[in-house]
Design a protein that fits this description.
By secondary structure, the protein is of the alpha+beta class. The N and C termini lie far apart (about 105 Å). Bound molecules: adenosine-5'-triphosphate. Pfam families: Kinesin.
């Protein structure tokens, strides 16, 4: 293991400049949806291709970090997020946003179904498998008509604060020890979420939902935030007043999120120097994950960000889906120089894969019994624990070094100040001596003049 251990500089060489991960997912057509003779949004390799339903000749290709077509499974989509979850195990905060027009599959991707669990369940399974000794907590809040409420605390109102490190103090975190407990908590919270039937979705989310997972391990903790945005749709005069109000709030808050993303992009191309978060409750809540920090002329985000662009190939929503794609392309241009232990993550991933394949080939060959397999599991967990301890140790050593350097610098400043005072004293003494000599010379001269006058007067 020792030859595999990475040094701090190797860890730093894992600095991520790739920015924000942008992934696209096109959901399958639903039964009631009209099928076009040709799809207006489809996947080729790593690109989303579009054909304008009003002019077949207008086609374009949009490349992203990963593209998932209608046949993709929840696990395949999760695999694109896995590295970020691994980094989260090493202490890098994660913001995962599901973005898209109404009925594009945001809620399905995040929460899934009992048979097809979504990103949230798959992420917590991955955390449990890789860090079995960690404790996991969850908090669920919704933002509805610009009001934030705690879905794990009977919808009690929360006040989003623009200046605090945690913009939502006082929200409830519940611990879960198993997938069943997680599902129970989610079921309870989502039953309180604002949902209603719209023209496009019989169960459209009318509120933004933010799910926070906290990993607590040893003395440290890290936070992951998953966001299921509310369904945005164009203004419809036929809607009820409350529906129009909801739609207008959703559109405005999404515009503010788009603006914050645009500000981040301009910041990374040096066209501006600030990002506005105060404009909506949504951006205020996301600030801890989006607030950039300028370090040595480059700016760093607080952690990893993953944006999933949810899309459908309905001709009716074509132009709104194009706007989603445009936001994705803009997001891809954001640079993030934050250090992520990605090399460590890759090492861990390969250890994980080797362990998995060894385990499956062993059980296939029936060459090992259950106790040997569990021994292997324990060995693997011990390796992971060692790896985690090593990361913790590196951080505490770095902390100690910084502290010592700070003390040294302070000592040097005090010493330098002391020397300066001494030098000033010496200079003042020299100056005083020079003045004294001058006065004495003047006195001698005056004495001489008096003596000459006295002689002249015959005294
Ligand atoms: N990948 C998928 N496979 C199968 N069905 C899907 C998939 N994605 C979405 N669906 C189905 O499409 C419908 C709309 O999905 P969903 O409610 O997740 O959309 P949404 O973007 O969250 O909508 P809204 O913004 O209105 O809340 C649902 O019936 C859902 O089950």
């Amino acid at each position: 293991m020792s030859s595999d251990i990475l040094t701090a500089s190797q860890l730093n060489s894992g600095t991520s400049t790739t920015g924000i991960q942008v992934v696209a997912r096109i959901r399958p057509s639903l039964q009631h949806e009209r099928q076009l003779a040709y799809p207006c949004i489809f996947k080729t390799n790593q690109c989303v291709c579009t054909t304008d339903p009003q002019n077949k000749l207008l086609t374009s290709e949009h490349p992203f970090d990963a593209v998932f077509g209608p046949e993709s499974t929840q696990s395949e989509v999760f695999s694109s997020l896995q590295q970020n979850i691994y980094n989260a195990l090493c202490g890098v905060p994660l913001l995962q946003i599901n973005y898209g027009v109404t009925s594009s599959g945001k809620t399905y991707t995040l929460f899934g179904t009992e048979q097809q669990p979504g990103l949230l369940t798959l992420s917590s399974q991955f955390i449990k498998q890789n860090l079995p000794e960690a404790r996991l907590f969850i908090s669920v809040v919704q933002i509805y008509l610009n009001q934030v409420s705690d879905l794990l605390n009977n919808c009690s109102t929360l006040k989003a604060l623009a200046t605090q490190a945690d913009p939502l103090p006082g929200r409830v975190f519940k611990e879960f020890r198993s997938e069943t407990e997680l599902n129970q908590l989610l079921k309870k919270a989502l039953a309180l979420r604002e949902q209603s039937a719209t023209n496009n979705n019989s169960q459209s989310s009318r509120s933004h939902c933010l799910i926070y997972l906290v990993i607590q391990h040893n003395d440290g903790q890290n936070q992951l935030c998953f966001v299921d945005l509310a369904g945005s749709e164009p203004f419809q005069a036929t809607q009820s007043k409350i529906c129009q109000q909801e739609s207008s709030f959703i559109r405005t808050s999404l515009l503010m999120l788009d603006k914050a993303i645009r500000d981040l992009k301009n910041l990374s191309s040096n066209n501006s120097n600030s990002v506005s978060f105060r404009s909506s409750q949504l951006t205020m809540c996301l600030r801890p994950f989006l607030q950039p920090k300028l370090v040595n002329t480059k700016f760093e985000l607080p952690g990893s960000i993953s944006l999933i662009l949810n899309l459908h190939s309905n001709a009716e929503g074509f132009y709104s889906n194009k706007e989603t794609l445009n936001l994705g392309l803009l997001t891809k241009e954001i640079k993030n120089y934050a250090k992520t232990p990605s090399r460590l993550g890759q090492l861990g991933q390969s250890v994980l894969q080797v362990a998995k394949s060894v385990r499956s080939s062993m059980s296939m060959n029936n060459s090992m019994n259950a106790s040997q397999i569990s021994e292997l599991d324990e060995e693997y967990i011990a390796i992971r624990r060692q790896e985690w301890d090593w990361v913790q140790e590196q951080f505490s050593q770095l902390g100690e070094q910084l502290y010592k350097m700070q003390e040294q610098v302070e000592d040097e400043i005090i010493e330098a100040r002391r020397d300066t005072v001494k030098e000033m004293q010496e200079l003042m003494e020299l100056e005083l001596q020079a003045q004294k000599d001058e006065y004495e010379l003047e006195l001698l001269e005056k004495d001489e003049e008096i003596r000459k006058l006295k002689t002249a007067l015959g005294l």
